[in-house]
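ok so i was messing around last nite and threw this chain in just to see what happens. nothing serious, just curious
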Amino acid sequence: QVQLVESGGGSVQAGGSLSLSCAASGHYNYDMSWYRQAPGKEREFVSGIDSNGRTGYADSVKGRFTISRGSAKNTVYLQMNGLKPEDTAMYYCSVLTYWGRGTQVTVSS
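result:
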């Protein structure tokens, strides 16, 4: 079983930045992803990184968010710049079929 713990959420004004982290128990090199869910909306893909370091982003965050992983491979980061009110959501880390409990990001206008 994999345990995922997200951190780094918070409240910022539009245009600000936040950096999220997700630490996974164990040591491996699987694909890792970030999703988000806003109130009343479905959970949506934000960004992912595979075992070779290749990355992918939702169109809504391209050019503003950057995903990376730590040298130990079991930590993934999401640097979020140029935040917009529509980025407000609970952000979740995912590996295989496992999910973290999420970290809240709130962006005020």
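not much to say yet. The first strand starts at residue 4 and ends at 7.
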